[in-house]
Amino acid sequence: MIETDRLILRRFEERDRAPLHAMWADPRVMADLGPVKSAADSDAALARHASYDPLGFFVVERCEDGATIGFCGLKPGAPDTPIANMLEVGWMLAVPWWGGGYAREAAAASIAWGWATCGDAAIVAITARRNARSRGLMERLGMRHIPAMDFTHPLFAPDDPLSDTVTYRIERP
Predict the structure, then answer these.
(1) Which residues contact 91 (CB under 8 A, 6 or more apart)?
(2) pTM tops 0.90
């Protein structure tokens, strides 16, 4: 578990299923991430992240009211990409929580946890080139765009705009 001033990042609990399913089924959340997910797809994502233990994305819970507001953490970079097996940070929040600094707080805490827990020399983040909001957050986190590591993501058709993937990196302090 990771705690910040306003958030708790923790393992999935059954009470998180409905808010996470709703987040992944929201076209606004998924616009730059991929197709909306069915309940079965959401459950598969939760199982996949649980398999990364001790890594994996954690449920993001607000301390003030216990609301499940998103998903954030670290995982191994996807196989068949330039970031394969690198430590990758990622995040997503439900729309009502956008713009409140929660994604930055959760991602910064995840990066700090990665430095304290893992021996990796760097942490990377990826997103679709068109995802300006996530790219801006990567920069605010101190990450730098590494054009030599940009790639066509194999999970998308080559002509899908989401396949054009950028890579950002932050070095261990």
Answers:
(1) 57, 60, 70, 71, 72, 73, 103, 106, 107, 110, 134, 137
(2) yes
